[in-house]
C-alpha cells in the first residue's frame, strides 16, 4: 500500500514538475524523471505478475490486479510466452496473458524478475513520442501438489516503453506532462 501511495505521489509530482515545453523535447532532468517512472512501472508490473500467478491469490483479487496491470500498457500490446518444452514463442493480448497466467496448471508458481535495465535509450519518433526498450530477466518455477519443482526456466524479455506528451486539466488549468506506457513484451531467449 505504501508503494502505491508513493507511486501516486510520484505521478502527481510529474504532473506539476514536468510541464510540457513548446519544443516538445525531453530535457535531461525530465528524461531522468521519465526513466525513473518507466522503471517503476516495470517493477509494478513485476509485482502484479507475481500476485496474479500466485495460486494463493483469491480470484477476485487477481482480477482486480489484472485491471491495474492492464492500465500500464498501450492498447493492443502483446506479451510473449515461451517454454523449454516447445520451440515456438506465443504472443497474447495483455488481458489474455494475465488470465492464462492465473490458470497455469501448477499447484504453486514462483515468478521473479531481476536485472531490470534500459538497453536502448529513448529515441524520438516523428509523431513526438519517445520509444525505448527495457530488458528484464524472468525466473519461472512451477511446483506440483507435493511441492516438487516440475518446471523452471529463465527468460530474457524486452519491454517496449512509450513516452507520450499528454495534457490534463487540474484546477481549471491545462497542464502538460509526459506519460509512460508499456508496449509489447518480446521474448529474446529462454534457458534452463
Walkthrough of the structure:
The chain has one domain: Nuclear Transport Factor 2, Chain: A. It has four helices and six strands. The protein has helices at residues 2-17, 28-53, 59-70, 94-102, and strands at residues 78-83, 86-93, 108-124, 130-143, 149-170, 173-191. The chain has a four-stranded antiparallel sheet with strand order 3-4-5-6. Strands 1-2 form a two-stranded antiparallel ribbon. Strand 3 and strand 4 form a beta hairpin. The protein is globular.
Main β-sheet, spatial strand arrangement: 3-4-5-6
Number of strands: 6
CATH topology: the name is Nuclear Transport Factor 2, Chain: A
Residue share in helix: 25-40%
The ordered H/E elements are HHHEEHEEEE
- The CATH class name reads Alpha Beta
Low-confidence stretches: 4-23
Radius of gyration: 18 Å
Largest sheet: 4 strands, antiparallel
Question: What count of helical segments does DSSP give?
Answer: 4
Q: Any guess at the CATH architecture? A: Roll
Q: Helix/strand-derived class?
A: alpha+beta
Report the β-strand fraction as a percent range: 35-45%
Amino acid at each position: 500500500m505504501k508503494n502505491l501511495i508513493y507511486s501516486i505521489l510520484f505521478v502527481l509530482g510529474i504532473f506539476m514538475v514536468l510541464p510540457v515545453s513548446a519544443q516538445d523535447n525531453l530535457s535531461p532532468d525530465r528524461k531522468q524523471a521519465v526513466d525513473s517512472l518507466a522503471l517503476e512501472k516495470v517493477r509494478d508490473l513485476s509485482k502484479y505478475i507475481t500476485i496474479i500467478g500466485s495460486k494463493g491469490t483469491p480470484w477476485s483479487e487477481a482480477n482486480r490486479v489484472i485491471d491495474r496491470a492492464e492500465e500500464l500498457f498501450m492498447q493492443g500490446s502483446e506479451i510473449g510466452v515461451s517454454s523449454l518444452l516447445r520451440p515456438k514463442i506465443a504472443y497474447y493480448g495483455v488481458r489474455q496473458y494475465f488470465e492464462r497466467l492465473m490458470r497455469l496448471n501448477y499447484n504453486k508458481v514462483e515468478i521473479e524478475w531481476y536485472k531490470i535495465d534500459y538497453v536502448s535509450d529513448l529515441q524520438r519518433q516523428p509523431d513526438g513520442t519517445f520509444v525505448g526498450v527495457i530488458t528484464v530477466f524472468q525466473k519461472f518455477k512451477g511446483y506440483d501438489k507435493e511441492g516438487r519443482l516440475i518446471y523452471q526456466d529463465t527468460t530474457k524479455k524486452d519491454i517496449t516503453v512509450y513516452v507520450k506528451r499528454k495534457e490534463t486539466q487540474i484546477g481549471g488549468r491545462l497542464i502538460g506532462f509526459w506519460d509512460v506506457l508499456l508496449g509489447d513484451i518480446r521474448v529474446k531467449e529462454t534457458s534452463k
